[in-house]
Amino acid sequence: MEENDKKRFLSYELGILTLKAALSTRDDKYPIYNKNTKVFQRSNAKKVLREHLAAVEARYSQNEVSEDEHIAFISDASSELSRNLSRYLHQGRFRIGVTQKLINVHLKYLWTAGFCPEPPHCPIDGIIRDIAGINYNWTSSDSVDEYLQAIAALKKLATRKVTLWHSGNLNHLEEEKMRSSNPSIQPIATLRLIFSLGNE
């Protein structure tokens, strides 16, 4: 298999993982799709999302993107995806919280695979929120300001911009959560290890 074919295959597989992570939410009040969208119709939406993931890879693999550019990219992506997919989406919006997870998770995978430089931000989801003790609901938030506040709160706790998180750290995190009756009270050292987490 040629190198370009290998890269395309891996990019496709990473896209599957990204969509699963970003579109899987247990928040019944803020689902991704509206009630009228049938399961078979979601494939149309996912095709648009896949095209956007390809654009993410093309943009971020060229050179390092600044934090301001990254924030603007997330905001623009939310608006564009909302326009293109409004008929499928809950309240016609692909929210900022969902968009940041979609983009940041994909960048985490691309970075880990060596396809792009280190991204500016980690994905923020329920696990990161609970461990860091921050007030941010990625499933419902549709505000860039709320996202920036969450990032600022994480920066105060983390010692690195983004940390590579191996599967072994997931096992470590699960063990830590099982030991504690309150998962939000975790050692700061653990947060430093899993700052790039984005899978729930």
**Using DSSP, what is the number of strands?**
0
Number of domains: 1
> Tell me about the biggest sheet?
none
Class inferred from helices and paired strands:
mainly alpha
Number of helices: 8
Mean pLDDT: 82
Unreliably modeled segments: 162-175, 181-200
Q: What share of the residues does DSSP label as strand, in percent?
A: under 5%
Shape: globular
End-to-end separation in angstroms reads 34 Å
Proportion in helices: 55-70%
Cα radius of gyration in angstroms: 17 Å
Order of secondary-structure elements:
HHHHHHHH
Give the SSE map.
Elements: H1 3-23, H2 42-62, H3 67-85, H4 96-112, H5 126-132, H6 144-157, H7 167-179, H8 188-193
Helix pairs in contact: 1-4, 2-3, 2-4, 3-4
Question: Any overview of this molecule?
Answer:
- Helix 1 runs antiparallel to helix 4 and helix 2 crosses helix 4.
- This protein has one domain (3-193).
- It is built from eight helices and no strands.
- It is globular.
- It has helices at 3-23, 42-62, 67-85, 96-112, 126-132, 144-157, 167-179, 188-193.
